[in-house]
Write a structure and sequence with these properties.
Elements: E1 3-14, E2 17-28, E3 32-36, H1 43-51, E4 58-63, E5 66-67, H2 73-79, E6 81-83, H3 96-105, H4 113-126, H5 142-154, E7 160-164, H6 172-187, E8 191-195, H7 199-205, E9 208-213, E10 216-222, H8 223-228, H9 230-237
Parallel strand pairs: 3-8, 3-9, 6-7, 7-8
Antiparallel strand pairs: 1-2, 1-4, 4-5, 9-10
Length: 242
C-alpha cells in the first residue's frame, strides 16, 4: 500500500516550547492507524497541523503527491482531509439536517437545495441517525452529537479522516457502536488516523500505532507489539511498570 499521508521531520514550536520534535510517520491508503501517547505528548498538535489549524514550524506534510504543509484549513479540506474534535462542535441553533447541509455546501464539489438535503439524510443514515434530521442539534444525546459530527466530516467526502478522541466519553454499549461505525468506514476504503486513549478500541481497529511522548516519536509498528513495548508502557504508566 502506498502512503496517503507522510509526515516528515515535522516540528511545531510555540514560543520557547517545542510541542512536536522532528516527527516522521506515514499512513497508507485504507489503513486505520492510531496516534497514541499520554496527555501533553503532542498528538492533537499533529492533528491540528495535518488539518490546517496550525502551520508547522518546520518539516512537511505530504498528502499523496501534494505538500499541504501550512495551507489554510479549507484548502486542506478540499484536498480530501476531514476531522472531528476532542470536544464535539455543533451548530446548536440549527437542526441535525442543517448541520450536515452546511458541510455539504462547503465541500470541494458542493450541492444545494433538495440534493443537499437528500445527501444529508443519506449521511445521517450512514452513522445511525436515520430520520433524526428535523431534530435540533443541541437536543441530541452526547453519542448522537458525535454521530452527527462524524456525518458532517464525511460530508466533505474525505480520503483521510482524522478522529481526535472521537470514542471518548462513551459507555460500553456506545463504544461498541462507535467501533462498528469506524469499521464500516474502513470497509468502504477510507483511511483513518485516530487519536485515542481507549486501548480496547485501538486493539480492535488499528493495524498500526505511532506513539509519542513529550513531542517525540517513541514507537511505530504493529499495534500489539507497540503496546507491549517497554518504552510505551513506561510513558503511559511510569518507570515502575516498564
Amino acid at each position: 500500500m502506498s502512503p496517503l499521508v507522510r509526515v516528515e521531520n515535522l516540528r511545531k514550536q510555540f514560543g520557547g516550547l517545542t510541542a512536536v520534535h522532528d516527527l516522521d510517520f506515514s499512513v497508507a491508503e485504507g489503513e486505520i492507524v492510531a496516534l497514541l501517547g499520554p496527555n501533553g505528548s503532542g498528538k492533537t498538535t499533529v492533528i491540528n497541523m495535518i488539518s490546517g489549524a496550525f502551520a508547522p514550524t518546520a518539516g512537511r506534510i505530504m498528502f499523496g503527491e501534494t505538500n499541504i504543509s501550512g495551507l489554510p484549513a479549507h484548502r486542506i479540506a478540499h484536498h480530501g482531509v476531514a476531522r472531528t474534535f476532542q470536544l464535539v462542535r455543533v451548530l446548536p441553533s440549527l437542526t441535525v439536517r442543517q448541520n450536515i447541509v452546511a458541510a455539504v455546501a462547503f465541500r470541494r464539489e458542493p450541492v444545494w437545495g433538495q440534493e443537499a438535503e437528500a445527501e444529508a439524510e443519506r449521511l445521517l443514515s450512514d452513522v445511525g441517525l436515520t430520520g433524526r434530521g428535523p431534530e435540533m442539534a443541541q437536543d441530541l444525546t452526547y453519542i448522537d452529537q458525535k454521530r452527527m459530527e462524524l456525518a458532517r466530516a464525511l460530508a466533505a467526502q474525505p480520503r483521510l479522516l482524522l478522529l481526535d478522541e472521537w470514542l471518548s466519553g462513551l459507555n460500553p454499549t456506545e463504544l461498541r457502536v462507535g467501533i462498528e461505525l469506524i469499521v464500516s468506514l474502513r470497509d468502504r476504503g477510507m483511511t483513518v488516523l485516530l487519536v485515542e486513549h481507549i486501548m480496547e478500541a485501538v486493539r480492535a481497529l488499528c493495524t498500526r500505532a505511532v506513539v509519542m511522548n513529550v513531542g517525540r516519536k517513541i514507537a511505530d509498528g504493529p499495534t500489539a507489539g507497540v503496546l507491549a513495548d517497554k518504552h510505551v508502557v513506561s510513558a503511559y504508566l511510569g518507570e515502575g511498570h516498564a
